[in-house]
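Sample pair:
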Amino acid sequence: MNIPTQGRVSLPVALNWHFEPTCNYRCKFCFAHFADIEEKSDYPIPQLYADLYARGVKKITFVGGEPMLDRRIDHRITLAAEMGFTTCLVTNGTKVTPRWLEKMREHLHWIGFSIDASNDHLHAQIGRGRAGEIKKGYSKHLERSLVSWNAAKSLDYNLKLNTVVCSYNKSDDMSELVGRLAPDRWKVFQALPIKGENDDEWDELEISSEEFSAWVTRHDHLAPVVESNDLMTGSYCMLDGKLRFYNNVGGEFKHSAPIPEVGMDRAWSEIESLFSDDVFEDRGGVWSWEVSK
């Protein structure tokens, strides 16, 4: 394959790779359904990593969908660590077992669990649960997550907690739970509307800036890293399963051409103007992610 080349671009130091489009959960606020991805790219991963590293990427966060549904996840994490990247996984925890955690301990530097509420009644309302559970009106997400979290903690993993705030959990108080979990980093996001992803559900999900601020104030003593809609817009370097760079512009995802077709430099150049270094810095895109344990 002849791929056009041009001057080497400079990429942000942190990349989110949404390589697995499918998910076994039904979160109503999800903006990562990837409905247009029928087949994932089979581009050589060593070449992808080498090109990313040469252009300045230092941390790769493996995301979905649910990344643990991809049978190649172990290899992708291990190879990234061997090539010098800091590795991070964001997961709903359904396939994170103690045995898997032991196997991946040398290669996975950070593991992030998504927990949005202090109880599973709220998780059921949000849709954070297995498809079969949600269809029947319940969730066991928190119950499962606590098992996986404690197993990871016993192995001394660097632990992140991710929470999305929407209309369903805006009055919740997670203080006791988060105090008990004691994450190394707690990311809190205001639910974000994206056209074609969650706009069908948005009327029942939307939360005002004032309501989000009230939720943040309630949890201020736990020092969460807070991202409003403004801070989430244009501040992430993201790849999808087709190896297209993409970003949020005006509540809609815009994509580059796939890297296998045009090369990494041209692909990033097509989307680079949509990325804001200033907003990336404002939201704390660079933090102390170096391996500390």
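Residues 141-154 form the longest helix (14 residues).
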